[in-house]
Amino acid sequence: MKQQNFEKLYRGQWQRLEHILIVLEGARMKVARSKKDVLFERSIPEFSKIYRQLCHCLSIAKQRQYSSYLIEFLNDLAIRGHQQLYKRKTNLLVTIIRFVVADFSKIIRQEWRYVFIAAVIFCMPALILGGYTYHYPELIYSVFSPEQAGMYESMYNPDVEHIGSERQSDDDIVMFGFYIRNNIGISFRTFASGVLVGIGSIFFLAYNGIIMGVVAGHLTDLGYSDTFYSFVIGHGAFELTAIVFSGAAGLKLGYSILAPGNMSRVHALRKAGIESMHIMYGVMLMLLIAAFIEAFWSSSQVISFAAKYGVGAGLWIFVCVYFIIGGRHRES
Protein backbone atom coordinates (compact mmCIF):
# COMPACT_ATOMS: atom_id res chain seq x y z
CA MET A 1 0.00 0.00 0.00
CA LYS A 2 1.29 3.44 -0.91
CA GLN A 3 1.85 5.92 1.89
CA GLN A 4 -0.83 8.26 0.54
CA ASN A 5 -3.49 5.53 0.69
CA PHE A 6 -2.21 4.39 4.09
CA GLU A 7 -2.63 7.89 5.53
CA LYS A 8 -6.06 8.31 3.96
CA LEU A 9 -7.25 5.02 5.48
CA TYR A 10 -6.16 5.72 9.07
CA ARG A 11 -6.05 9.52 9.27
CA GLY A 12 -9.46 9.70 10.97
CA GLN A 13 -8.37 7.42 13.82
CA TRP A 14 -5.17 9.36 14.34
CA GLN A 15 -7.03 12.64 14.51
CA ARG A 16 -9.51 11.17 17.01
CA LEU A 17 -6.66 9.92 19.21
CA GLU A 18 -4.91 13.29 18.98
CA HIS A 19 -8.11 15.05 20.06
CA ILE A 20 -8.51 12.78 23.10
CA LEU A 21 -4.86 13.36 24.05
CA ILE A 22 -5.24 17.13 23.79
CA VAL A 23 -8.23 17.02 26.12
CA LEU A 24 -6.49 14.73 28.62
CA GLU A 25 -3.31 16.78 28.63
CA GLY A 26 -5.25 20.01 29.00
CA ALA A 27 -3.29 21.56 26.14
CA ARG A 28 -6.19 23.52 24.64
CA MET A 29 -8.81 23.70 27.38
CA LYS A 30 -8.68 24.22 31.12
CA VAL A 31 -10.05 21.07 32.69
CA ALA A 32 -9.95 20.36 36.41
CA ARG A 33 -7.88 17.36 37.43
CA SER A 34 -10.89 15.45 38.77
CA LYS A 35 -12.82 16.11 35.57
CA LYS A 36 -9.85 14.93 33.50
CA ASP A 37 -9.78 11.67 35.41
CA VAL A 38 -13.51 11.14 34.81
CA LEU A 39 -13.08 11.86 31.11
CA PHE A 40 -10.13 9.48 30.97
CA GLU A 41 -12.08 6.67 32.62
CA ARG A 42 -15.00 7.12 30.24
CA SER A 43 -12.77 7.14 27.16
CA ILE A 44 -10.66 4.11 28.09
CA PRO A 45 -12.42 1.55 25.81
CA GLU A 46 -12.23 3.77 22.73
CA PHE A 47 -8.84 5.17 23.66
CA SER A 48 -7.27 1.73 24.17
CA LYS A 49 -8.62 0.43 20.87
CA ILE A 50 -7.37 3.44 18.88
CA TYR A 51 -4.03 3.37 20.68
CA ARG A 52 -3.43 -0.29 19.80
CA GLN A 53 -4.30 0.49 16.18
CA LEU A 54 -1.86 3.39 16.22
CA CYS A 55 0.97 1.16 17.48
CA HIS A 56 0.17 -1.26 14.64
CA CYS A 57 0.28 1.61 12.14
CA LEU A 58 3.62 2.78 13.53
CA SER A 59 5.06 -0.70 13.14
CA ILE A 60 3.85 -0.89 9.53
CA ALA A 61 5.19 2.58 8.72
CA LYS A 62 8.64 1.63 9.99
CA GLN A 63 8.62 -1.72 8.20
CA ARG A 64 7.60 -0.17 4.88
CA GLN A 65 10.03 2.73 5.39
CA TYR A 66 7.46 5.47 4.95
CA SER A 67 8.59 9.10 5.29
CA SER A 68 10.38 10.18 8.44
CA TYR A 69 7.71 12.86 8.95
CA LEU A 70 4.94 10.26 9.19
CA ILE A 71 6.98 7.98 11.47
CA GLU A 72 7.84 10.91 13.72
CA PHE A 73 4.18 11.95 13.91
CA LEU A 74 2.99 8.43 14.80
CA ASN A 75 5.82 7.90 17.26
CA ASP A 76 4.96 11.13 19.06
CA LEU A 77 1.31 10.07 19.38
CA ALA A 78 2.40 6.64 20.65
CA ILE A 79 4.58 8.18 23.37
CA ARG A 80 1.85 10.57 24.48
CA GLY A 81 -0.70 7.77 24.47
CA HIS A 82 1.56 5.52 26.53
CA GLN A 83 1.98 8.26 29.12
CA GLN A 84 -1.79 8.66 29.46
CA LEU A 85 -2.47 4.92 29.64
CA TYR A 86 0.16 3.99 32.18
CA LYS A 87 1.67 6.95 33.96
CA ARG A 88 -1.63 8.43 35.14
CA LYS A 89 -2.14 5.39 37.37
CA THR A 90 0.98 5.91 39.48
CA ASN A 91 2.24 8.76 41.61
CA LEU A 92 5.75 10.17 41.60
CA LEU A 93 6.98 8.14 44.57
CA VAL A 94 5.79 4.86 43.05
CA THR A 95 7.44 5.80 39.74
CA ILE A 96 10.76 6.54 41.47
CA ILE A 97 10.68 3.29 43.46
CA ARG A 98 9.83 1.29 40.35
CA PHE A 99 12.69 2.96 38.47
CA VAL A 100 15.21 2.19 41.22
CA VAL A 101 14.04 -1.35 41.86
CA ALA A 102 13.60 -2.53 38.28
CA ASP A 103 13.60 -0.08 35.40
CA PHE A 104 17.14 1.28 35.70
CA SER A 105 18.80 -2.13 35.58
CA LYS A 106 16.53 -3.11 32.69
CA ILE A 107 17.59 -0.02 30.71
CA ILE A 108 21.28 -0.77 31.28
CA ARG A 109 20.82 -4.32 30.01
CA GLN A 110 18.98 -3.04 26.95
CA GLU A 111 21.88 -0.68 26.18
CA TRP A 112 24.57 -3.27 26.95
CA ARG A 113 26.42 -2.64 23.68
CA TYR A 114 27.05 1.00 24.53
CA VAL A 115 27.91 0.05 28.12
CA PHE A 116 30.40 -2.55 26.94
CA ILE A 117 32.12 -0.15 24.53
CA ALA A 118 32.26 2.57 27.20
CA ALA A 119 33.71 0.12 29.73
CA VAL A 120 36.45 -0.92 27.29
CA ILE A 121 37.33 2.70 26.48
CA PHE A 122 37.54 3.50 30.20
CA CYS A 123 39.21 0.35 31.53
CA MET A 124 41.82 -0.36 28.86
CA PRO A 125 43.83 2.89 29.32
CA ALA A 126 43.55 2.45 33.09
CA LEU A 127 44.94 -1.09 33.05
CA ILE A 128 47.63 -0.49 30.43
CA LEU A 129 48.97 2.77 31.84
CA GLY A 130 48.57 1.52 35.41
CA GLY A 131 50.88 -1.41 34.72
CA TYR A 132 53.26 0.70 32.67
CA THR A 133 53.55 3.38 35.36
CA TYR A 134 54.19 0.74 38.01
CA HIS A 135 57.20 -0.57 36.07
CA TYR A 136 58.31 2.84 34.81
CA PRO A 137 57.46 5.32 37.60
CA GLU A 138 58.81 8.33 35.70
CA LEU A 139 55.82 8.08 33.34
CA ILE A 140 53.70 9.96 35.85
CA TYR A 141 55.63 13.15 35.06
CA SER A 142 54.49 12.87 31.45
CA VAL A 143 50.90 13.20 32.67
CA PHE A 144 51.25 15.32 35.83
CA SER A 145 53.57 18.05 36.96
CA PRO A 146 55.81 17.30 39.97
CA GLU A 147 53.48 19.43 42.12
CA GLN A 148 50.44 17.45 41.03
CA ALA A 149 52.22 14.14 41.57
CA GLY A 150 53.20 15.32 45.05
CA MET A 151 49.58 16.23 45.76
CA TYR A 152 48.44 12.67 45.02
CA GLU A 153 51.24 11.29 47.16
CA SER A 154 50.17 13.44 50.11
CA MET A 155 46.50 12.53 49.66
CA TYR A 156 47.19 8.80 50.05
CA ASN A 157 50.03 8.95 52.55
CA PRO A 158 49.18 6.52 55.38
CA ASP A 159 49.93 9.25 57.93
CA VAL A 160 47.29 11.76 56.76
CA GLU A 161 44.15 12.29 58.82
CA HIS A 162 41.73 11.95 55.90
CA ILE A 163 42.58 9.76 52.91
CA GLY A 164 41.91 10.62 49.32
CA SER A 165 41.57 14.41 49.25
CA GLU A 166 43.28 17.62 50.20
CA ARG A 167 40.57 18.71 52.57
CA GLN A 168 39.82 22.36 53.00
CA SER A 169 37.30 21.41 55.67
CA ASP A 170 37.17 18.83 58.45
CA ASP A 171 33.40 18.63 58.07
CA ASP A 172 32.36 15.42 56.32
CA ILE A 173 29.07 17.01 55.26
CA VAL A 174 30.95 19.77 53.41
CA MET A 175 33.07 17.16 51.66
CA PHE A 176 29.92 15.21 50.83
CA GLY A 177 28.67 18.25 48.91
CA PHE A 178 32.05 18.69 47.23
CA TYR A 179 32.12 15.09 46.03
CA ILE A 180 28.58 15.39 44.64
CA ARG A 181 29.47 18.49 42.63
CA ASN A 182 32.75 17.04 41.38
CA ASN A 183 31.40 13.63 40.40
CA ILE A 184 28.29 14.99 38.71
CA GLY A 185 30.46 17.44 36.77
CA ILE A 186 32.63 14.61 35.43
CA SER A 187 29.65 12.46 34.49
CA PHE A 188 27.69 15.26 32.85
CA ARG A 189 30.66 16.29 30.70
CA THR A 190 31.14 12.67 29.67
CA PHE A 191 27.47 12.39 28.72
CA ALA A 192 26.79 15.78 27.13
CA SER A 193 29.91 15.76 24.97
CA GLY A 194 28.44 12.75 23.16
CA VAL A 195 26.59 15.17 20.88
CA LEU A 196 29.95 15.66 19.14
CA VAL A 197 29.19 12.40 17.28
CA GLY A 198 30.44 10.49 20.33
CA ILE A 199 34.00 11.83 20.18
CA GLY A 200 33.60 13.89 23.35
CA SER A 201 32.40 10.91 25.38
CA ILE A 202 35.25 8.77 24.06
CA PHE A 203 37.74 11.46 25.05
CA PHE A 204 36.46 11.89 28.62
CA LEU A 205 36.18 8.13 29.17
CA ALA A 206 39.75 7.56 27.99
CA TYR A 207 41.03 10.64 29.86
CA ASN A 208 39.55 9.54 33.18
CA GLY A 209 40.86 6.02 32.60
CA ILE A 210 44.35 7.37 31.96
CA ILE A 211 44.28 9.51 35.11
CA MET A 212 43.10 6.63 37.25
CA GLY A 213 45.60 4.18 35.80
CA VAL A 214 48.62 6.47 36.14
CA VAL A 215 47.74 7.44 39.71
CA ALA A 216 47.12 3.81 40.70
CA GLY A 217 50.40 2.62 39.17
CA HIS A 218 52.39 5.42 40.81
CA LEU A 219 50.91 4.95 44.28
CA THR A 220 51.33 1.17 44.07
CA ASP A 221 54.99 1.68 43.25
CA LEU A 222 55.34 3.95 46.33
CA GLY A 223 53.82 1.30 48.59
CA TYR A 224 50.56 3.18 49.20
CA SER A 225 48.45 0.29 47.93
CA ASP A 226 46.33 -0.18 51.05
CA THR A 227 45.46 3.49 51.47
CA PHE A 228 44.62 3.92 47.79
CA TYR A 229 42.75 0.71 46.98
CA SER A 230 40.86 0.57 50.29
CA PHE A 231 39.76 4.15 49.59
CA VAL A 232 38.61 3.49 46.02
CA ILE A 233 36.98 0.09 46.39
CA GLY A 234 33.99 1.25 48.44
CA HIS A 235 32.54 4.18 46.52
CA GLY A 236 34.14 2.99 43.26
CA ALA A 237 31.41 0.38 42.86
CA PHE A 238 28.97 3.24 42.23
CA GLU A 239 31.20 6.06 40.99
CA LEU A 240 33.24 4.19 38.37
CA THR A 241 30.24 2.33 36.98
CA ALA A 242 28.32 5.63 36.86
CA ILE A 243 31.09 7.19 34.77
CA VAL A 244 30.92 4.24 32.37
CA PHE A 245 27.12 4.55 32.15
CA SER A 246 27.48 8.29 31.45
CA GLY A 247 29.84 7.46 28.61
CA ALA A 248 27.39 4.86 27.29
CA ALA A 249 24.61 7.45 27.27
CA GLY A 250 26.90 9.86 25.41
CA LEU A 251 27.83 7.21 22.85
CA LYS A 252 24.13 6.59 22.26
CA LEU A 253 23.69 10.29 21.48
CA GLY A 254 26.63 10.24 19.08
CA TYR A 255 25.46 7.13 17.27
CA SER A 256 21.98 8.60 16.77
CA ILE A 257 23.61 11.42 14.78
CA LEU A 258 25.85 9.13 12.75
CA ALA A 259 23.14 6.54 12.00
CA PRO A 260 19.66 8.08 12.36
CA GLY A 261 18.02 5.30 10.34
CA ASN A 262 14.66 6.24 8.83
CA MET A 263 14.34 9.32 11.04
CA SER A 264 15.79 12.76 10.58
CA ARG A 265 18.96 13.44 12.56
CA VAL A 266 17.16 15.97 14.74
CA HIS A 267 14.40 13.51 15.61
CA ALA A 268 16.86 10.65 16.12
CA LEU A 269 18.94 12.83 18.46
CA ARG A 270 15.87 13.91 20.39
CA LYS A 271 14.70 10.30 20.76
CA ALA A 272 18.17 9.15 21.87
CA GLY A 273 18.37 12.09 24.26
CA ILE A 274 15.12 11.11 25.98
CA GLU A 275 16.25 7.49 26.30
CA SER A 276 19.74 8.49 27.47
CA MET A 277 18.33 10.77 30.16
CA HIS A 278 16.75 7.72 31.79
CA ILE A 279 20.28 6.36 32.18
CA MET A 280 21.44 9.68 33.62
CA TYR A 281 18.67 9.67 36.23
CA GLY A 282 20.13 6.44 37.57
CA VAL A 283 23.67 7.82 37.26
CA MET A 284 22.76 10.80 39.47
CA LEU A 285 21.46 8.45 42.15
CA MET A 286 24.61 6.31 41.94
CA LEU A 287 26.83 9.37 42.29
CA LEU A 288 24.85 10.52 45.32
CA ILE A 289 25.46 7.15 46.98
CA ALA A 290 29.15 7.23 45.95
CA ALA A 291 29.63 10.71 47.42
CA PHE A 292 28.09 9.63 50.71
CA ILE A 293 30.36 6.59 50.97
CA GLU A 294 33.42 8.60 49.93
CA ALA A 295 32.85 11.35 52.49
CA PHE A 296 31.84 9.29 55.51
CA TRP A 297 33.49 5.90 54.93
CA SER A 298 36.28 5.77 52.36
CA SER A 299 38.28 8.72 53.71
CA SER A 300 38.17 7.64 57.35
CA GLN A 301 41.39 6.50 59.00
CA VAL A 302 39.47 5.02 61.93
CA ILE A 303 38.07 2.17 59.84
CA SER A 304 40.51 -0.68 59.17
CA PHE A 305 41.72 -1.61 55.70
CA ALA A 306 40.22 -5.09 56.09
CA ALA A 307 36.77 -3.65 56.82
CA LYS A 308 36.98 -1.35 53.80
CA TYR A 309 38.03 -4.18 51.52
CA GLY A 310 35.24 -6.41 52.83
CA VAL A 311 32.51 -3.79 52.50
CA GLY A 312 33.88 -2.67 49.13
CA ALA A 313 33.80 -6.23 47.77
CA GLY A 314 30.23 -6.57 49.01
CA LEU A 315 29.21 -3.35 47.27
CA TRP A 316 30.75 -4.49 43.97
CA ILE A 317 28.88 -7.80 44.23
CA PHE A 318 25.65 -5.94 44.98
CA VAL A 319 26.06 -3.62 41.97
CA CYS A 320 26.87 -6.51 39.63
CA VAL A 321 23.94 -8.62 40.82
CA TYR A 322 21.57 -5.66 40.60
CA PHE A 323 22.38 -4.91 36.97
CA ILE A 324 22.42 -8.57 35.96
CA ILE A 325 19.15 -9.76 37.50
CA GLY A 326 17.41 -6.59 38.78
CA GLY A 327 13.89 -6.14 37.40
CA ARG A 328 13.80 -9.40 35.46
CA HIS A 329 10.46 -10.28 37.07
CA ARG A 330 8.97 -7.22 35.33
CA GLU A 331 10.43 -8.36 32.01
CA SER A 332 8.73 -11.72 32.50
Order of helices and strands: HHHHHHHHHHHHH
Largest sheet: none
Q: What value does the Rg take, in angstroms?
A: 25 Å
Number of strands: 0
Walk me through this protein's architecture.
By secondary structure, the protein is mostly helical. It folds into 2 domains: 3-89; 96-331, no CATH class. It is built from 13 helices and no strands. It has helices at residues 3-25, 33-63, 68-86, 92-110, 112-135, 140-143, 146-155, 172-192, 199-222, 225-258, 265-298, 305-325, 328-331. Helix 1 (3-25) packs parallel to helix 3, helix 5 (112-135) packs parallel to helix 9 (199-222) and helix 5 packs across helix 10 (225-258).
Can you give me a brief rundown of this structure?
The protein has 332 residues and is mostly helical. It has helices spanning 3-25, 33-63, 68-86, 92-110, 112-135, 140-143, 146-155, 172-192, 199-222, 225-258, 265-298, 305-325, 328-331. The chain has two domains: 3-89; 96-331, no CATH class.
Output the keywords.
332 residues; 0% strand; mainly alpha; elongated
List the helices and strands and how they pair.
Elements: H1 3-25, H2 33-63, H3 68-86, H4 92-110, H5 112-135, H6 140-143, H7 146-155, H8 172-192, H9 199-222, H10 225-258, H11 265-298, H12 305-325, H13 328-331
Helix pairs in contact: 1-2, 1-3, 2-3, 4-12, 5-9, 5-10, 8-9, 8-10, 8-11, 9-10, 10-11, 10-12
